[in-house]
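Lecture notes, unit on protein representations.

Consider one protein chain, 342 amino acids long.
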Amino acid sequence: MTTNPLDTGLFRLLSSLLGEAEAQTAFAQLQLLPALLQPVGERVTRAELAQALNMALFVDVTRRVPAGAAYVADCQRAGQRLVFDHGALRTVAWPSGALPPGEAAITRVLRPLGFAHAETYPLTRLKMTGRSWRHQDFPEDIAQFFVSELHPEQFSGEFQAAVSRVIGASRDPLAPEDLAALERLARDQQLPWGEALRLLPRLRACFERQHGVFELADYERLLAESAEMAWIATEGNAFNHATDRVANIEAVADLQRALDRPIKDTIETSKSGRVRQTAFRAATVQRQFLHEGQLVSRSVPGSFHEFIQRERDEQGLDLRFDAGNATGIFKMTAGATPAEAC
């Protein structure tokens, strides 16, 4: 093992995606398990690929969420590294063109990387289902994925038709050679360097919006019945949020509130009492729509940054989630209406 990040396989992977300077910044921002900081060898393990992808997705959220970026910068100035607990994204269980429907678009990537389905969480009020995916090699140290599916069949016919128009011609970011590489990774739990370096940006591309511009009227139809589907329409499969695992969530929330940052008024607590969560409200972003044959821009909710405190039980750190907590956190992207054209 080496302590110099410039000599690790993980750093080589991440710098291939982000560039050396930004990879160094990410290494300084996030706490990393020493077992993942291995010298560059002949092959890349699934854990190294999973960690590199997670770090790149964390950096992406930080770029898109100003309050999150300010919080991360505060931690860096104080010499504190964040513990990346989990990232969350949303999918739609509906025909999606070339893209596999629902969570399958994402789980086909997670499984070969070493993630396994851990728990299922019915999000009944949202007409969604959430599932957690936990890494088999380092479950406490490689961030989990919380993947939710929205169920359009539980909404009106007009809503379903709008969903089809918005996502029905989605593209697939993975080519046949990428899927073949994922099959080899699932079989061998490692890849040669050349194959890993070529595959990693293709994996990151799975966490983007895969459909094109669509009618503003369809966005408004979706928003009228589901703020979550409206969010998916504009943001796609991008990380809805990334989460810092903290030791004292009340202290974090109080400090962010004192700094006048847009943090949630309350802390969500699981039924067990061992998992507590709060978050910044979603950043506002500009997205384009079609309206009367012209492109128009609207302000809509984007992503956000979350905080979680986990306690230990008899099995170790409680890595579970809570449907009630998740429903409360989902409200961070709800409640906004389209602004005037700009």
